[in-house]
Amino acid sequence: MTTTFDRGLALLHAVLAAELGPAGYPGNAHLAEQVGLDQTQVSRMLKDLAAVQLVERDEQIRGWRVGPMYFALAEAAGDRQLLVAARPLLRGLVARWHEPAWLSVRSQDTALTVEAQLSHWSSNVAANLGARLPIWCTGAGRALLLDHSEAELGRLLTDVDFIGGGPRAARDTAALARYNAVARAAGVVIADREFEHDVVDFSAPVRDESGSIVAAVSLAVPRFRLADRAADVAASVREAAQALEVRAASRAERTGDRPGP
Q1: What's the 3-state SS for the chain?
Q2: Ranges in the chain annotated CATH 3.30.450.40
Q3: Is it true that domain 73-255 has CATH number 3.30.70.330?
Q4: pLDDT tens across 160-191, in order?
Q5: Which pTM value belongs to this model?
Q6: CATH top-level class for 4-66?
Q7: Which of 43, 78, 170, 256 is a plausible cystine mate for 175, CB 3.0–4.6 Å?
């Protein structure tokens, strides 16, 4: 192990191995022994992993277990055809518009970024790999919810207080349903200042062979750089999402990795 990433990955694997074994949730001393580091290093690295919810501490037995982000990333990585097919399409969006582009999947009531291509011109918090953002006030989140009725949105977001987000974010499920009705007709979400001030998120749903929404392709543009390009940006994001559906299905067919009925 020569890098911090290597050590962190080894520590995460050690937590999982111990959790699945007879000893149960491991403590710092056990983990330090397993990965060959001192307890101070292990303690610091566990805090970093806990900050991004890759591990969490059970305070009753004072041991560690894998956290919700571990399972969310594992679930997202399960459809490897989708991730592989998305990369060139995201790069194409960045090359055309010089803005960050990313792929998200739904993780409970958040939008989880599972693939991203950054821009040298600008950055965006949603384009950080592993970012978990509110599903109700982001372009990606709204694209993932386009097929939800107002009643379904109410059940999903029953614990959401609709506080935060940008100045034009929906403040209740009724407003969110109205926003999504417009986006559904257009086939693309244009979330203008709904998450970040002065940023417009363009997001389009990606559907599987059954027609269910499984992901969202997004691109973020600061309003001062958008000018009169909104329609063209929206169209390009929608086309990328549609192309991703075709490419992912084609790769699955070629590799014999098509999902079962």
Answers
A1: CCCHHHHHHHHHHHHHHHHHCCCCCCCHHHHHHHHCCCHHHHHHHHHHHHHCCCEEEECCCCEEEECHHHHHHHHHHCCHHHHHHHHHHHHHHHHHHCCCEEEEEEECCEEEEEEEECCCCCCCHHHCCCCEEECCCCHHHHHHCCCCCHHHHHHHCCCCCCCCCCCCCCCCHHHHHHHHHHHHHHCCEEEECCCCCCEEEEEEEEECCCCCEEEEEEEEEEHHHHCCCHHHHHHHHHHHHHHHHHHHHHHHHHHCCCCCC
A2: 73-255
A3: no
A4: 999 999 999 999 999 999 999 999 999 999 99
A5: 0.72
A6: mainly alpha
A7: 170
Backbone angles phi, psi at 202, to 5 degrees: -110, 120
pLDDT per position as a tens digit, 99-151 = 999 999 988 788 988 888 888 777 788 887 778 899 999 999 999 999 999 99
State CA 229 to chain mean position distance.
Answer: 26
d(CA 99, CA 78): 27
